[in-house]
Amino acid sequence: MPNEQSPSIPQPSLWRAVLLGALYVVVDAFILNQGAVALLVGLWLLLVGLPRTFLAKKYATVRAQRLRYLGVYFVAVLLVFAINATNNRLAQSRAERLVSAVKAFHAQNHRYPKSLEELVPDYVELVPLAKYTFLFNKFSYYTSDQGTSLFYADFPPFGRPTYSFTRNEWGYLD
After folding, report:
1. Any residues with CB less than 8 A from the CB of 17 and at least 6 apart, and which?
2. Cis omega before residue 157 (within 30°)?
3. Which of 91, 99, 145, 174 is deepest in the core (most CB within 10 A)?
């Protein structure tokens, strides 16, 4: 009986995996800024990628190489979660400073500012970006007869923490 060997499985280079992982981090952390894709990719790695690598006989000869690639993608998933969490903490901190500035403006002028730009330069040096992302990176500020509020996107396009100056508390718009 001839020696049956599994056919060689072509594998992409490690640099390709690193490049794809970096591209994924940029898209999911800095453009989409959700982490939903990271969750799906992470689940796929754990539920499909790892079992296939260890259980499929055709991958036995390239198991170490596949584990390196899966490791690169898993690090990319962790980076997306870390960047999103850091951006959300940064946005919350900046929002708190804006809330304090709006309250100080209100105490001094007996009215709320018409826009956040009205706080510059007396109460803040400049109106900061909420996050370091390409989309959903600005604070929204509204004042009307119904009330005044400040919000930003925590989990785009939903999950918007909102500060109500009328109720003097944080809540969620959706």
Report:
1. 68, 69, 72, 73
2. yes
3. 91
CA distance 40 to 18: 19
CA dihedral 97, 101, 106, 107 (to 10 degrees): 100
Instruction: Indicate the pLDDT class of residue 1, thresholds 50, 70 and 90.
Output: very low
Complete DSSP assignment for 19-35: HHHHHHHIIIIIII--S
Domain with 34, as residue range(s), is 14-85
Per-residue pLDDT at 155? 79
**3-state SS assignment for residue 21:** helix
With left for phi above 0 and alpha for psi between -120 and 50, is residue 143 left, alpha or beta?
Answer: beta
What's the whole-model pTM score? 0.80
